Amino acid sequence: MNQFVTLSKNSPEFESYLLGTFADDKRALPVESLNVNSASEMVTFKIVSLSNLKRPSAWYIALKSLKVRGFLLLLVPMFLVLTKNLVDNSLRDTSTTIFASLGLIFSFIAMNLRNDFMDHIKGIDRIFSYAGSRAIQNGWLTAIQVKNYSVWFLLLAMLCAVPVIFSYPEVTILIFVAMAIGLWAQFKKQNSFKYRIGGEVALFLLLGPLLTVGYQLSMGARFDWESFYLGCVWGWGVLFVLHLRNFTNILISSQAGFQNTINWLGFDKSRRLLAFWWLSFVLVNLFYHYAYAGIYWGFYLSVTVMMVSASFISKLKTISSPVGSELRHVFRYGFSLFLVTVSLWVFECLWYLAT
Amino acid sequence: MAQNVIDLKVYDSKDFPAYLPKLNKLYDDLFAGGKGFRAKLIRMMSSHLSLNGDSEHLLAQTIEFIHNASLLHDDLIDRSELRRGKTAAWLKYRPEYAVLAGDYLLARVMVNLSGHGNIKLVQYTAEVISDLLEGEWLQDSVVGDYFVNLEQLDRIHNLKTASLFKWCIRAPFIAKERYDLELHQILEEMGTLLGLLFQRSDDLLDFDIRNEEGKAILGDLKSGYLNSFGAFASRYCERSHQEMDAIVKSHDLNEFYQALGGKNKFDELVLAFDEKNKGLIQMYDHHLERLRKHLLPGEEKLIEQLRPLTEILYWRRKPS
Question: What's the predicted TM-score (pTM) here?
Answer without folding.
Answer: 0.90
